[in-house]
Amino acid sequence: MANTTITVIGAGYVGLTTATLLAEAGHTTYVLDINQQRLQAIKEGRSFFFEEGINPLIKHAIDNKKLIPTDSYEDSIPHSQFVFSCVGTPDNPDGSSNLTYVFAAAEQASRLMAANSIYIQKSTVPVGTGERVKEQFAKIKKKVAYVSNPEFLREGTAITDTLWFDRIVAGGNDKKSVSKVMDLYKSVESRRAEIAKRAGIQSPKTDTKNDKGAYIITNRNSAELIKVTANAFLALKISFANSIAKLADQTGADVNEVMDAVGADRRIGRAFLNAGRGYGGGCFPKDVSGLIASAQERGVDMPIMTAATDVNETMPGYIAEKIKKALGDNLSQKRIAVLGLAFKAGTSDVRRSPGIKLANVLAKNGAKVFAYDPQANEEARKDIHRSIELCNSYEEALQDADAVLISTEWPEFAAIKIDVFKNLMRGTLVVDAVNIINKQAVEKIDLRHIGVGR
Ligand code: NAD
Ligand code: UGA
User: Fold this and answer.
1) Going by CA atoms, what residue is nearest to atom 30 of ligand 1?
2) What is the pLDDT, as a whole number, of residue 304?
3) Residues 78-128: tens digit of each pLDDT
4) What residues of the chain score a pLDDT lower than 70?
5) Which domains, from first to last, does the chain contain?
6) For residues 170 and 176, is the Cβ–Cβ distance under 8 A?
7) Residues forming a β-bridge with 8
């Protein structure tokens, strides 16, 4: 398609990734936010969060004047043929989705949108939200096409996930607009090799015909429900694995072996069956509670998702109890190294991080915690217990520790030579809350190993 002008509202994990890739595909792309710190970082050619490959793309797109950071709706929206909404949808205290930002962005944008332009909802919203936004547009008497186009990228692999997507989903009443949105993605896909090269990332698959991601057109409500259903199912898989892990702990089975064999069945698949300290992040916890709440609103119970949440919430406490027991039930005066504060590997994001939850539980129980994360130390600072010391390396955290707890699956931690634990620590306890350490190698040199379901 010919190059066009786009505004992406919200320069967060999703908005900045989307805007950058659209700009790299040649479209003049405004990235609109109210957060001056985030805008300033983009102007300087970088992201406010750690994400592999994104900085060279931002820098290139800024230098080319294809990516334009702005806080002005007036300067961006009226010129744009496409307006993406990528604002946050956090949870309310009762677990339901807080749509304040979604409605505020739609209200502000729709007043300024050009004739025949398209409003695209990328934020994760409960099914039925598009209907409400359309009613909002109707009140303003603007004829704006509305397309629901949920996002499936993961933090840590955001660029790869967007360039080599499994599927793009778009739904709306106006088929022409849906098709134009698909064309935008095709324009990114057609330049993915060049963009990936600039980002310095490898293509995950060969570009054969069979590896092509799917373009899936649905109705608007289906598109909304597809997004939350996908996240809920992935969360369910993790809680299922954690339930089996607890049984494995009682029986001498190894959950990694169990899930390798179970996941070899192509009907089940191995992905998202890694047991450990449970899921965290800015999405699974609030998307699951949002699904439960939106179902309840319509008189539908979701006990399966309530159970997934319950299991997930038990996991940090389950692991903390194991540590306490192994250290003689009293953590005071115990030095514990916590490796991993990001909610997962590959990101600096600490939203609802299980590693932070665990570090804080240990600190509240009197342990002296020395924590380290390769990317998330700074972001974690505001959320960690005041007694926790942040370290500049895992070696520093391990120094004289009675125990080490590995709480994020960073490859850097999986690669630590087991001797290093023995040489630096004064104690012998290695707690692997993400099941990435070789248990036999730990036990071979007379260290004690605790995993989850191993
Ligand atoms: P985020 O909080 O990082 O970013 C949202 C941005 O929107 C913030 O920078 C905020 O300042 C800005 N904003 C809020 N109101 C605004 C307004 N009226 N005008 C302009 N800017 C405004 O959120 P995120 O993680 O990028 O998630 C955004 C949405 O995408 C959520 O619905 C989330 O569930 C969904 N999602 C996130 C991911 C992910 O990996 N983070 C993946 C898929 C979907
Ligand atoms: C997740 C989904 O994977 C994305 O497809 C989706 O777009 C996104 O949410 C969203 O809607 O925001 P993300 O939160 O970035 O992406 O991270 P995941 O890789 O899904 O991991 C989520 C959590 O589950 C992490 O804490 C991770 O450590 C944990 N996890 C993951 C496990 O405990 N076990 C697993 O097997 C996999």
Assistant:
1) 123
2) 98
3) 999 999 999 999 999 999 999 999 999 999 999 999 999 999 999 999 999
4) 205-211
5) 5-218 (3.40.50.720), 220-454 (3.40.50.720)
6) no
7) 31, 84
The alpha carbon of 89 and the centre of ligand 1 are apart by a number of angstroms equal to 7
Cα–Cα separations (whole angstroms), residue 388 to 67, 148, 166, 376, 384: 40, 43, 41, 14, 7
CB-based contact 431:323 (threshold 8 Å): yes
pLDDT at 1: 83
Known catalytic residues are 283
CB of 275 shorter than 6 A to ligand 1: no
Report the run of H or E that residue 211 belongs to, with start and end: none
Instruction: Please name the helix (run of DSSP H) or strand (run of DSSP E) that holds residue 3, with its range, or none.
Output: none
Predicted local distance difference test score (pLDDT) of residue 211 = 67
Strand partners, 147: 120
Type and span of the H or E element at 186? helix 175-189
Q: Is the Cβ atom of 87 under 6 angstroms away from ligand 1?
A: yes
Q: Considering only CA atoms, which residue is closest to atom 11 of ligand 1?
A: 35
Task: Give the Å distance between the CA of 279 and the centre of ligand 2.
Answer: 7
Q: DSSP string of 358-394?
A: HHHHHHHTT-EEEEE-TTTHHHHTTTS-TTPEE-SSH
Whole-angstrom Cα distance, residue 326 to residue 335? 13
- One DSSP character per residue, 296-338 reads HHTT---HHHHHHHHHHHHHHHHHHHHHHHHTTT--TT-EEEE
Residue among 48, 15, 45 at smallest CA distance from 375: 48
- DSSP output for 131-149: HHHHHHHHHTT---EEEE-
Over the Cα atoms of the chain, what is R_g?
23
**Counting beta carbons within 10 angstroms of the beta carbon of residue 419, is it exposed (0 to 12), middle (13 to 18) or buried (19 or more)?**
exposed
Q: What is the DSSP letter of 97?
A: B
Instruction: Return the pLDDT at 155.
Output: 95
| Torsion sign (Cα): 147, 150, 151, 152 | negative
Give me the pLDDT at residue 410, please.
98
Of ligand 2's listed atoms, the one at least distance from the Cα of 158 is 15
Angle between the N-to-C axes of helices 13-24 and 54-63, in degrees from 0 to 180, rounded to the nearest 10: 50
Ligand 1 atom with the smallest distance to the CA of 49 is 3
The per-residue DSSP string of 229-282 comes to: HHHHHHHHHHHHHHHHHHHHHHHT--HHHHHHHHHTSTTT-STT---SS---SS
**CA gap 383, 364 in Å, rounded:** 13
Contacts of 420 (CB under 8 A, 6+ apart): 395, 398
